[in-house]
Amino acid sequence: MTRQARSHPQRVDGSGLKPVPAKLGSDDVSFRPIRPVRSYERIVEQIEEAIVEGRLRDGDFLPSEREMMVQFAVSRSTVREAMRVLESNGLIRSRPGNPNGAEVLGLSTVALRKTVDRLVMGRRIALADLVHFRMLMESSANMLAARLRTEEDLVALEVALEDMQAAVAADYEAFSAADVRFHGLVAQASANALIQMFNDVVHDVVLDMIASKIAVSREGTSMMELSLQHHADVLEAIRSGDARRAGRMAREALFECYSALLAPEDCTAVKLLLDACALG
C-alpha cells in the first residue's frame, strides 16, 4: 500500500503562493547581530523609568556625579554622557557646581517641541500642516471645554481675557503671551492630557513661524482686536455649554487668521476641512 504524505495547513500570502514555513534552527533561518547597549544608555533608562513611575518628580535632585559613579559602577565620562542625553530630552537641568546634582524636570513637552522644530526646519512639516492640525485640535478642545468646564475654569478664562484686553495697548509679544494662557486654560478645561501637551507645542511653533510677519504688519493692532473679540465669543460659547458653536468658531477663526499667509493650493486644502466640518 502506498503511504500518502500528511498535508499541513499553509498560509497564503498576497502573491497567492503558499510558502513553506522555515524550521527553527535550519539553514534557511538567519538572525541579525545584537547591538551592544552602552552603559550610559542603561543609566538613562533607569532614570527615565523612575521619572515615569513617579519615584522622581519635578524639583527633585539626582545624586551628585560622584555618587552616581558609585551607584552605577561606571566612569565619570559615562555618567556625564547620560546626563547630557537626559538634559537634551528635557528631563533634567544641570547646573555646574550645584552640590545637589541635576534637577529633575519630569515629563514635559520640551523633547516634543524640539522634534517638531526639527521637522519644520527640515521642511517635513509646513505651516499648512500645523494650521490644519490646530483646526482639529482646538475645535475639539473648545467642544470638550464647553461640556466639561467648571466654575473655576470660567473664572480663569475671564482673567486671561482681561489680560489680553490690557495687552492690546502694549505690544504683540505681551498679547501673544496672554493668548497662549487663554488657549492653555481651554485645553486644561478639556480634561484631555494630549490636547494640553500638543496645544503648548503646536501653538508656539506656529507663532514662531509667523511672529515676524505679524509684528511688522501695519494691521497688527486690528488683528489683535479681532482676535480679542473671537476669544470673547469663544468664552461665551463655553460658558453657555454650546459645544458645536465653540468648535466651529475655532476652525473658522484659525482659517481666517492664517489663510492669507498660506499658498493658494495650501489654502484650498485647509478650507476642505472647514467645509467638511460645516457639512457634518
Briefly summarize what is shown.
With 280 residues, the chain is an all-alpha fold.
Itemize the secondary structure elements and their pairings:
Elements: H1 39-52, H2 65-72, H3 76-88, E1 92-93, E2 103-104, H4 110-121, H5 127-148, H6 151-168, H7 172-189, H8 193-215, H9 220-240, H10 243-258, H11 264-279
Antiparallel strand pairs: 1-2
Helix pairs in contact: 1-3, 2-3, 5-7, 5-8, 5-9, 5-10, 5-11, 6-7, 6-9, 7-8, 9-10, 10-11
Walk me through the structure:
By secondary structure, the protein is mainly α. The protein folds into 2 domains: 39-104, Arc Repressor Mutant, subunit A (Orthogonal Bundle); 111-279, Up-down Bundle (Four Helix Bundle (Hemerythrin (Met), subunit A)), CATH 1.20.120. The protein has helices spanning 39-52, 65-72, 76-88, 110-121, 127-148, 151-168, 172-189, 193-215, 220-240, 243-258, 264-279; strands at 92-93, 103-104. A two-stranded antiparallel sheet has the order 1-2. α5 (127-148) runs parallel beside α9 (220-240), α5 runs parallel beside α11 and α9 packs antiparallel against α10. The protein is globular and about 60 Å long. The N and C termini lie far apart (71 Å).
